[in-house]
Amino acid sequence: MPLVPTSSIVDAAREARVGAAAFNVIHLETAEALVTAAERTGIPLILQISENCIRYHGSLLPLTRATLALAEDSTARIAVHLDHITDADLVHQGITAGVGSVMVDASALPYEENVATTAELAAWCHDRGAYVEAELGEVGGKDGVHAPGARTDPDEALAFVRATGVDALAVAVGSSHAMHERTAVLDKDLITALHTTLPVPLVLHGSSGVPDDELRRAISAGMTKINISTHLVSVFTHSIRQTLGADPALVDSRKYIKPAREAVAEEAARLLGVLGTPATVPGQYAAQAPARG
After folding, report:
1. Any binding-site annotation on 92?
2. Are 272 and 41 contacting, i.e. CB atoms less than 8 angstroms apart?
C-alpha cells in the first residue's frame, strides 16, 4: 500500500470520533516496530520524526528516507510527519523529500511572530500539498503553556487558526511532554469547547503521561490526533535493560535490540487498539491488513 496523506488519517479519525495515532520514530528500529504494529492491527498510523531526532542523527534525509521507504513498502496505511520543527529549512527539506505533513513549531515566539511565521510556512506547505499542524504555546516540560494549570483559550485558538490557515492545532488541556508516569488528568470540558469552536482537528501532545481510559475520554470529548513518544521509548529501553541484565556478556546489539523492537511493536499495537477501535465505532476506522511475513 502506498504512503498515505496525514490528512486522510486525521480526517477519517475525526469523522469516526476515534484517535488518529501519531507515534514518534527515534531510529530505524522503532520505525520498523511501529510499522509492524500498524500491519498487525490494520489501524492507520502516523510516523513522526521530531527536530530533536533529526539533530540526533545529524541530518534530516537518512532517517526520513528510510521511514518513507518503510511506509511505502507497508501493507498498512502509514503517513510520515515532521514533529516540532522550529527550523524553516528543515520544513523545506522534509516536504521536498516527500513527507506529507509538518508541525510548524513557532510557539516559543511572541504571539504575533508565531502567527506570522506559522502562516508563511503553512502557505508554503499548502502550495506543495502538505498538511500543517501548529500550536499557540510550548507544551509542558518545555517551559510552555502546557505546564500544569495552563489551558488554551478557545477564542484565541480560533483567531490563531484563522490567521495562520493551519490544518490542525495542538492545544493545552492538561498533558505534558516527557512524563514517565501515566497519571495526567485532562480538561474534558475544555476539549469539548475547543472541538466545538475550532474548524480543525485537535492534537494532544504529551500523551505518554495520559492513561488509556483518559485518552478514550479525551477522544470522546473531541480530541483527534494523539501523539505518543516517551512511553514507547521507555518500553524499548526497559526491554534492553532486561535482556542485558539477564546476560551481561552479550555484545551483539542485534540480540538485545530485536526483543526491544518486538516489545515496542506489541505495545504500539495495544495503543492503536485503545485509540483507533473503540467499541462504539466497530470497523469504521480499522481496515485489516495482512502482517509482514
Report:
1. no
2. yes
Topology (CATH) of 6-276 = TIM Barrel (3.20.20)
Cβ contact 3:80 at 8 Å: yes
Q: What is the C-alpha to C-alpha distance for residues 159 and 201, in angstroms, rounded to an integer?
A: 15
- The three-class DSSP label of residue 101 is strand
Any binding-site annotation on 177?
yes
Annotated active-site residue 83? The verdict is yes
Among candidate residues 11, 73, 83, 155, the one labeled active-site is 83
pLDDT band at 213 (very low <50, low <70, confident <90, very high): confident
Strand ranges (E), the chain: 20-24, 45-50, 78-85, 101-104, 131-135, 168-170, 202-204, 223-228
Rounded Cα distance, 288 and 40, in Å: 8
Write out pLDDT tens, residues 134-150. 998 644 444 444 455 67
The Cα–Cα gap between 24 and 83 comes to: 8
